[in-house]
Design brief:
The protein is of the alpha+beta class. The protein contains five helices and five strands. Strands 1-5-4 form a three-stranded mixed beta sheet. Strand 4 and strand 5 form a beta hairpin.
């Protein structure tokens, strides 16, 4: 499934269902196309949703069938998924399963496009680095956009007024230690107070 997904969609990870619409020539047997369902992924999703594997596969068959009919939930505005829910209720007589869950990819993983155009899933530190790289790219784009905007605006010319400064006093030479000796400091005697209050 991973190989098929990589070869036909350029995504190097496994998925639950792939649809291959047929393009029959004139006079050839008419059929919609082929569906490929990955049973291990279907089983994993069934456990996540707490339903049987059979129930999950029924949903995947309906989902793949709609793709063969030309619907694409990645491009339309929810029409395919609402039709899928309606078909599940009518054909199976059961409540539709949620298709909004991420299927087959670990939480926190990111899709990275390599230089040769191949897309691979990265996890852990590589996914964190990819997120950081995207953030810095956005910040750089924002900064260049702001720089272009500021370059377009005419700058205001502010004239600076000269500031009047006080002239510096000429430094007086200090007398050498041998020439000028300080007189010893006098200690004042404490004043005595009388006990009389005036």
């Amino acid at each position: 499934m991973k190989k098929l997904n990589r070869e036909h969609r350029g995504i190097n990870l496994t998925t639950d269902v792939l649809s291959f619409p047929a393009e029959p020539e004139k006079g050839a047997f008419l059929h919609l196309g082929d569906l490929v369902i990955c049973l291990p992924v279907a089983e994993k999703m069934a456990k996540k949703m707490k339903v049987s594997r059979r129930r999950e596969i029924e949903t995947l068959v309906i989902h793949g069938f709609l793709h063969l009919c030309g619907y694409d939930h990645e491009k339309d505005k929810g029409e395919m998924l609402s039709l899928q829910a309606q078909l599940e209720q009518e054909l199976l007589g059961k409540d539709p399963l949620r298709m909004s869950l991420k299927r087959g990819r670990k939480p926190g993983s990111k899709l990275k496009t390599l230089k040769n155009g191949e897309r691979v899933v990265v996890t852990g530190r590589a996914a964190t680095a990819l997120v950081r790289k995207e953030k810095t790219k956005k910040l750089k784009a924002k900064a260049t956009k702001a720089a272009v905007k500021s370059a377009k605006k005419p700058k205001k010319v502010v004239e600076k007024k000269p500031v009047a400064r006080k002239p510096k006093k000429a430094a007086t030479p200090k007398p050498s230690a041998s020439v000028a000796k300080r007189a010893p400091r006098r200690v004042k005697a404490p004043r005595l107070r009388s006990g009389v209050i005036a």
